[in-house]
Amino acid sequence: MVPITSTVPGLLTAAFLTLAAVTSASTITVKPHQLIQAAIDAAQPGDTIVVKAGVYAEQLTIKTDCITLTGQKGTILVPPTTPVPPAQQNLCFNTTGFDNIAGICVHGTDVELAQFPGSEHQKVISVGRRVKDVTITGFEINGFSGENIALYGAEDALVTKNKIVDGQVYGVLAAGCINSDVSNNKILSTGLTPFGFRFIGVCSDNESGAKVWTNDVDNYGIAICIQTNGANIQHNHITNSCLGAFVDPGVDGAIVRHNNIGPSNPACATAFGASSGIFVAGINTEVQFNTVVGQTIGAAATSENLGVGINVRDIPGDPRIAAGNQIVRNNVSNCQLDLALNSTGAGNVFKKNKCQTPASLCTS
């Protein structure tokens, strides 16, 4: 029998190292007229940066593990007042289009990006080393031309309890990450731009693991885009958007449950051309226990283009068809068409949904 005492030195060493890690963490305070980025650059893993109330005109970059960036009530981050010089352009610069910057860019090292495809964002090809355990909380982040918050090549990043306003392309984007968590945020667009709707409220395009829970998302073209296999999208409240939750072609096994999706924006008919509470183009998606109401494009509707509550549909020209999707126990009402199946894929199931139209899908 192995003596019990043989494990004691190892346990004591582990306890000592854990205690040392905790006690070495410090809190750095940033006041108005000071630079948040300077505090981030000075921080060590485990540190918390507390930003006092005020307006800070900066773009921020976080590359250090285990940093918590906390804004006190009334802390607002806005774009710099002058163009960002080349020496200060971080990884997120231009990832969503020409001359676009992110408000807060969290990224790993040696992140390789594909070329910008002309819309959405640059895809992550590889990550040398991930930045881990970064938390962003308590901020209002307002009006950046690309992403208000961007996570590239991060692991276990948490974005929570922020007010994220008028991100032109994305409110929050996670790309090439592992286990990103975007929860309990208010993500909104204050109105249309000369180019139409701001694009996407939250998007998860991860290597694996994406949680989007309990957010309020308002007035985006697409409220939540789902580009991660097995993404977990639950308990979000979505209003005034054209596509509430969009599961991209090829995405496998996303979970879309317990979301409340309110009426679409009347401007969707002319400024976006579509309206759907939940649009599923992926495979093996679980769409359950959602409430969807009021999806319409008004008089612009045609037999081919309606406001649809839950729409399982192949994307024209894309060889990846929607298949194996389970649309179960949802409550859908007051849409031009409550449920729709426009896919040649096998195994798409609609059952036990509360809805009216069409009868063929609402009676099973």
Automatic annotation (TrEMBL):
Q: SUPFAM superfamilies in the record, alphabetically?
A: Pectin lyase-like
Question: Superkingdom of the source?
Answer: Eukaryota
Asked if the keyword Kinase belongs to this entry, the reply reads: no
Any keyword Oxidoreductase?
no
Keywords from the named record = Signal
Q: Where is the signal peptide?
A: 1-25
What this protein is called in its record is Right handed beta helix domain-containing protein
Naturally occurring in which organism (per UniProt):
Coleophoma cylindrospora
